[in-house]
């Protein structure tokens, strides 16, 4: 699962739902991860949480990410997710958001390696559960302990570790420290997959060349750009697909809408799609005004018309688009 430097869609709450995961796979992601799912919510049979365990065949092999603190609840939820079709379970040990940290879950676990050990022991118990952990570099700069967490994970049979080399207190400020990540990855006995600040094929191919980096996980770079996986593979010579044309982009954007409608129903699908549409328009001339219009649009036809007017001129120019250098 983690051989050959896989490119992986990172877990993103509110974003990496089934439609987004399907698009990522379509464009060459080797693996995809669900949004974080509450282990406790699953065990309490919460309806909304349970609905997050709904997968489509093209997403496989799929990693389900759980968050929680109680080892037995995490183990029981992991078995439930495997039953629902997950190929592997990832445990969130990196989320810095207050709501999660105050329950002792997410990155709070990095302050308590004893609790990490208890969770890993529960997952490793017979029958063993295929699992990974996702961590940050530590709680803060005085407590960088990704190496200790990786060591524990390896000792308990984890398949890999996903590491985002910012500390928890940094949230998303500053830059991901890839030098630190390389240092800990080189010493690791299991694959360490890097995550952080990968927006272009060139950045990704440089990261893949770092010794010890066993693969990449992409998050914000693929918002409004699920085709980035294919562009990276073209850049590193693993795929010969041409760079994406505007007509393919537009077809993808409409496919995203259709999948959201199928998965979430027309009304919720519409609301969620507008958020993605804002990302799809990012960086294009007139995007700010377009975003204002889409968020005040109220119906499918109005939104479709807005999209045709906004994206139409780009598709007309798609011949030029094909010559674009994907490494820029
Ligand atoms: C909107 C958003 C939601 C996220 N949700 C999760 C999550 O549910 N679980 C998790 O482990 N990380 C989550 N992350 C962190 C990402 O998986 C990733 O590690 C981080 O964004 C760094 O990668 P990037 O620089 O490529 O964005 C989230 C990030 C963003 C931006």
Would you summarize the structure shown here?
By secondary structure, this protein is an alpha/beta fold. 46% of the residues lie in helices and 15% in strands.
Helix content: 40-55%
Instruction: Tell me the span between the first and last alpha carbons.
Output: 30 Å
| Integer tally of domains | 2
**SS-based structural class?**
alpha/beta
Mean pLDDT: 94
**Major sheet: size, sense and barrel closure?**
8 strands, parallel, barrel
Question: Judging from the principal axes of the Cα atoms, what is the shape?
Answer: globular
Known CATH architecture of the largest domain: Alpha-Beta Barrel
Spatial order of the strands forming the largest sheet:
1-2-3-4-5-6-7-8
Q: Output the radius of gyration.
A: 20 Å
CATH topology of the largest domain: TIM Barrel
Number of strands: 8
The CATH fourth-level homologous superfamily of the largest domain: Aldolase class I
CATH class of the largest domain: Alpha Beta
What does this structure look like?
- The protein has 328 residues and is α/β, with parallel strands linked by helices.
- The protein has two domains: 7-235, TIM Barrel; 246-319, Non-ribosomal Peptide Synthetase Peptidyl Carrier Protein, Chain A.
- The chain is 46% helix and 15% strand.
- It is built from 15 helices and eight strands.
- The protein has helices at residues 18-26, 39-43, 47-51, 71-83, 98-101, 113-124, 146-155, 178-186, 201-209, 228-235, 246-264, 266-281, 287-296, 300-316, 318-321, and strands spanning 7-9, 31-38, 62-67, 88-93, 131-138, 160-167, 192-195, 213-218.
- It has an eight-stranded parallel barrel, surrounded by five helices.
- Helix 1 runs antiparallel to helix 11, helix 4 crosses helix 6 (113-124) and helix 9 crosses helix 10.
- Residues 320-328 have low confidence and may be disordered.
- It binds flavin mononucleotide.
């Amino acid at each position: 699962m983690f051989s050959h430097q896989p490119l992986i869609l990172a877990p993103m709450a509110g974003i990496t739902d089934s439609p987004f995961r399907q698009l990522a796979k379509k464009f060459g992601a080797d693996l995809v991860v669900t949004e974080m799912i509450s282990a406790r919510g699953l065990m309490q049979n919460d309806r909304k949480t349970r609905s997050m365990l709904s997968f489509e065949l093209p997403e496989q092999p799929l990693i389900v990410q759980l968050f929680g603190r109680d080892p037995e609840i995490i183990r029981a939820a992991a078995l439930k997710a495997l039953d629902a079709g997950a190929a592997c379970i990832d445990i969130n040990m990196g989320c810095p958001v207050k709501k999660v940290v105050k329950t002792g879950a997410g990155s709070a676990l990095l302050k308590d390696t004893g609790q990490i050990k208890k969770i890993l022991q529960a997952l490793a118990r017979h029958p063993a559960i295929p699992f990974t952990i996702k961590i940050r570099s530590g709680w803060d700069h005085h407590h960088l302990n990704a190496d200790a967490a990786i060591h524990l994970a390896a000792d308990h049979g984890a398949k890999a570790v996903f590491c985002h080399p910012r500390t928890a207190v940094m949230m998303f400020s500053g830059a991901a420290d890839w030098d630190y990540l390389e240092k800990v990855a080189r010493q690791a006995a299991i694959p360490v997959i890097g995550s952080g600040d990968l927006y272009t094929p060139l950045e990704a191919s440089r990261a893949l060349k770092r010794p010890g980096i066993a693969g990449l996980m992409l998050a914000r770079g693929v918002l409004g750009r699920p085709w980035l996986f294919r562009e990276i593979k073209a850049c590193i010579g693993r795929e010969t697909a041409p760079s994406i044309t505007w007509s393919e982009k537009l077809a993808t954007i409409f496919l995203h809408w259709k999948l959201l409608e199928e998965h979430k129903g027309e009304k919720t699908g519409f609301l969620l799609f507008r958020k993605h549409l804002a990302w799809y328009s990012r960086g294009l001339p007139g995007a700010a005004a377009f975003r204002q219009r889409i968020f005040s649009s109220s119906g499918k036809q109005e939104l479709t018309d807005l999209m045709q007017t906004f994206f139409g001129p780009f598709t007309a120019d798609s011949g030029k688009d094909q010559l674009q250098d994907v490494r820029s």
